[in-house]
Amino acid sequence: MTAVLPEVLAAPRNLWRRFANWLHDRMPKGLYARALLIVILPVVLLQSAVAYVFMERHWEVVTYRLSAGMARQVAALVDIYQTFPDDPDHAQLRRIAAFDLNMEVAVLPKQVLPGPAPKSSLFSLLDKALTKELSRRLKEPFWINTALPGSLIEIRVALNDATLRMLATRTHAYASNSYIFFMWMAIASVIILAIATSFLRNQIRPILRLARAAEEFGKGRNVAFSPRGAREVRQAGAAFLDMKTRFERAIEQRTTMLNGVSHDLRTIITRFKLSLALMRDSHEAAEMRKDVDEMERMVEAYLAFARGDGDETSSPTDIAAILDELKADTEKRGLAASVKIEGDPTLVARPAAIKRLLANLVGNAQRYGARLELSVINDGAMMTVHIDDDGPGIPLERREDAFRPFYRLDESRSQNDGNSGLGLAVARDIARGHGGDITLDRSPLGGLRATASLPL
After folding, report:
1. Which of 57, 203, 224, 410 is surrounded by the fewest CB atoms within 10 Å?
2. Residue 47 burial by CB count (10 A; 0-12/13-18/19+): exposed, middle or buried?
């Protein structure tokens, strides 16, 4: 018994969890749609409750009261007929029915009442109420038809010597103006929906502008932005502008500092070169010149990595032209290369940064492969550039390590090959600075495929 109890309690929880997951999957994901749902849903539920509880009850009470009044009128006409049986034309009966009760009465010969009249779902409440009230007022058999054309009700009462046939409008016994209430509720719902939609659209628009400004800034593009909207949205916009200002100031300070460091280091390297130029040619001097050249290349690479391209302005950049230049450079090195373009190759980005990104990827492929395939695909949302080579590739478990700064996959390689371990790190840093990324995979050529994905 003790072991079964947790399973019994767990069943409702699992059922509720499945229902919650089902509901979550079908709920709108956007803030505009969710806010609209929060505003509209309670109003609709409240109006529906009012319509069902209040109006349904009100409609039923009014219909029963009207039916009771008609039943009293029918009973009164029956009493009048029975009280004045000697009136040959029943003129008095017809006059009272027409002028006082707004009904039409006909005295028919004695006949069997018709069978049950066809019922309409629209007037089921009227059938029920009128039958009940007539049963309370009349002792004689009667027959009713509430679905006659022209909004009429026919009532027949079987007397001892005749059959009374009475016609009355349906409004005598039926609350037919209820549709006005529902119509006004529908109109009110539409008006509320229109007002809520307009209001929420104006509240959501500043949030979308802020999101667009943040996205463009993340891609290295500057867009005009001023905080608008509700107080909280303006606070978020002001915080974004403050963050953007601090970020730009930090980039400016870093650039200024690195320019100074770069100038000082280049000055020292230039002194080394001048000193070596004044020395006599020897094996030691040649080795020192190679070390100085290598030092200069490494310093330039380190500074390029640390400096980045944050101060460069974004502009339309032709990726195809850059790939054609890299293809020509690859062929000059005696390697095979091809370029394939799909879609518009123009991308709004920092031109020098994108050129450095692609040059680093192609340079890495040139270093290890003998054949390169360069391709760019524009699918309308993303610019994807593939750099394929037929080199040895990189093992799956070490591909992320290749992006680490100053990390060399092949520790046995000499630094004299010009590889500072920063090429892929710089390339990924530039790609992420534009809102994209770089991934490594196995190439169809058998080597490595480097894929740069940049949002348009």
Report:
1. 224
2. middle
